[in-house]
Each structure stands twice: as structure tokens, then as C-alpha cells.
Amino acid sequence: MILQSVLANVMEAQKSNVHDLDLGLRRSALAILPDITSHALIVSGIRRSGKSTLLYQLLKEKYPEALYLNFEDTRLYNFEPNDFSRLDAIIKESKTNVLFFDEIQIIDRWETYVRQKLDEGCKVVITGSNASLLSRELGTKLTGRHITKELFPFSFTEFINYRKWQPSEEAVMAYLHTGGFPEYVKSGLEEVLHHLFEDILIRDIAVRYGVRDVKTLQRLALYLVSNVGKLVTGNRLKGLFEIGSTSTIMDYLSHLEYTYLFHFIPKFSYSTRKQLVNPRKIYAADTGMINANSGSFTDDFGRKFENMIFLHLRRDFKEIYYFSEKNECDFVVFQKGAAKKLLQVCYELTPDNLDREMNGLFEAMDFFKLSEGTIVTLHQTEEFERDGKVIKAVPAFQFLAE
């Protein structure tokens, strides 16, 4: 239980701190956050991607009258579900109907309270750590009364805007090395990414799901971050890590994906069953995190480059596959049930790899009946045509700035 006077003082202090903060680079996600009252707006994403900062920016720019409360404040450790009535009294006194809640999901029965505020016509915006509650669970708890928007670390455009650079090959290489986690972009301290990697494994997965074999979870995550762009199956990983059950491995992979630490894309097939049984390709949440945590002794720029392009696509599209029949195409982007884009990623086109890269794209273009495909390279610009189909090679700085 907490006194109403204490709660009011905490809220006043928190909002004052927000207004005094230097909120840094304006996040581009602000432009796509919907203005709604019938549903709660939930901002989800990997830990330390800037969700709280986005909330602060939204508050300062659009809703200065909003009531703001971060439930992770140490002064609120005694907050209990019954204290929502005290929060109600403060809201009534403030005469605002815009409510910003950081980490409200750590309080029992929070979803009942949020639904109540929505029914009263309030605008509710929530951000939440995956350690407390995953975005998928947020939707379940609110029984459909929500819209979720994902926030990722800095995009290439945000990265170069922060550095005050122009798009260039050199900027791409810097972004490939640094990645987009705001705190690391600002500090350059690799410990930030080491600690973040461990925090997600321990706090967001091991503690939350009661994983007892933490060492195997850590070894699995290290293997995945060291092998981005490669194919994996549950059975192969089961044997590699000598785990008794494939279902245990699949649970671990599911946890890693739900926390946004890794993405696993399936091979395209019109058969859902075949998608499930075929190998999936691994991509990590951030290229800086790969560089900081990978156990690989080689600098495999090609696979990290591919990971960077995947993350650019993933910001705008959720349905992404790889295509593999006689040849392979790295990415098939679907939207509204149809193939929208076909992309091959090649760090540098050479006489040795040109046919392989083009054949994979042309085969995919035939399969999906598309007339154009793209090869993203580090610096090359080319155009190839075959049987009325066109492949354009574009430099990454141009593709990432689109």
C-alpha cells in the first residue's frame, strides 16, 4: 500500500525529470504512432532500444498535459492493486484523460485497470520491458483492446542523423560495426552490449521462464550470435548442445525470438507444415551486438552485412522468408498475402559470385511472377536484364536511406 500523497509526489518528480532531460535524437517512430482512445497504444521492442525515451518525446511534443507514471520507480515498490484507486483520485484532480504508463505490467491486475480507463475515454500509452511481460501477452491481457507498435534500435538514417553524417559507404561500415543501440552509439563502450546480452538472457528469459540450465541457454545464444545468416534446425541444435528434448531447444528459440534478441526466418513454402520443418535462418537484433558478443574468430562481413539488411526490412515488414529451390534468394518480403520484394544481399559482386547471385534472384522472380529484383551491395551500382526481367544492384547507403 502507498499513500496518495507519496504517489502524487513521485508522479510530480518523475514528470519534472522528464521535462529536464535531454532526449537526444528525435525517433522517427514518433511519426507513425497512432492517436487513439478506444485502444491502448503499446510500444514493444528489445530491451534498451529507447522505448522510455520515445514515451518522453511523445509526452513533450504532443501531450504536455499527460499524466506520467513509471512503476519501476523504487519509491513505488509498495504499490498494490488496491492503490489504483489512489491513482484514480490523482487523475481526477489533474483533469487529464491522457495517461502514460511505463512498466505498469509489473503490478498485478493492471490489465483490468487499463481496460477501465479505456472505457472511461482515456488515452492510454504503455511501454513495457520484455522481462516483465511480452508484447504478445499484453495483447492477451487486454483482450484485443490494444494496438502494438514495435521499436527497434537506431536505423541507419537515425544513426547518421545522430552523427550528423551524409549517407556514404563509410557511414554504412560504421553502422555495420556499431549497430543502433542508442546507449552504445553514444558511449562506444562494448560493456554496454555485453551487459545487455546477458541481461536479456538472465532477466528476460531465465528468470521469467524458470530456465534452470542457464549455461546451455548462454551457450546456445553465443552460438546463434556467432552464426548469423546461417540455417538452423531444432534437431541439429539438440545434438550440438546434447539436450535431451527437441521441444526444450524449440522453447529456448521461442524465448529468444519473443525478446527480439534473435529473428528466425522460414524457407518460403505455400505449405505451413513445410515452413515448420525446414531449416530457418538466424539474424540477431543488432550488428553491434554481434560484434561485441560473437565467439567467431573471423570478421565475416558478408553475413553481418546480410543481417544489417534484414533488420532494415524487418522495421517495415513482419512477413519475410528466404527462397531456396535450385538456387537461393536471401529475402522474399510478403505484404497482404503477396510477394512484394525480392532481395539478394552480396557484400561485393565479383565474376566468381555474379551468376550465383543472379540465378537465385531470377529463379525467385519466375516463381513469384515478379519482373524486378534487387541486389544490395556495399558500393556497386549495376543493372542486369534477362527475358524481360531486371535486376538492379544498389549500394547499401542508398538502400538503407530509402
UniProtKB/TrEMBL annotation:
Domain called DUF4143: residue spans: 203-347
Q: Which InterPro entries match?
A: AAA_14 (IPR041682), DUF4143 (IPR025420), P-loop_NTPase (IPR027417)
Limits of the AAA domain: 39-159
Top-level lineage group: Bacteria
Annotated PANTHER family: AAA+ ATPASE DOMAIN-CONTAINING PROTEIN, ATPASE
Can you say what this protein is called?
AAA family ATPase
Question: Which organism encodes this protein?
Answer: Dyadobacter linearis
